[in-house]
Specification:
The chain is mainly α. It is built from 6 helices and 2 strands; from the N terminus they run H-H-H-H-E-E-H-H.
Length: 108
């Protein structure tokens, strides 16, 4: 087995496990905005960009978010209908407000 194959198999072996806190922060920002770019989302959700990318992929695989190409040929992220329903349920469960400036969400 080559070293590249060994590294690749280790990467696929470890599955990404999202953080519930990060998901809440990301969804809070996406609920407050129609769509945002990755960098803006990372800043507003107070998440490191590197960690955000994994969460975005996880959410995209589950069809909770979608990528939208804007008229400026930039890619933005938006919640799908399923994502909005999911976010609203999570915020109801945790008793949090679902807008981006909520100190409840961004302070956790």
């Amino acid at each position: 087995m080559s070293s590249l194959t060994a590294i690749t198999s280790r990467i696929h072996y470890r599955q990404f496990r999202p953080s519930a806190v990060m998901l809440l922060r990301i969804m809070a920002v996406l609920l407050a905005n129609n769509f945002v770019g990755k960098t803006e989302l990372a800043l507003k959700a107070k998440v490191q960009y590197k960690r955000l990318v994994g969460h975005i992929e996880w959410l995209k695989e589950r069809k909770i978010i979608e990528m939208i190409v804007t008229n400026r040929n930039t890619v933005s992220i938006a919640l799908t209908e399923k994502g909005r329903d999911c976010a609203n349920v999570l915020f109801d469960i945790f008793g949090l407000e679902c807008f981006e400036t909520s100190t409840d969400v961004l302070s956790i």
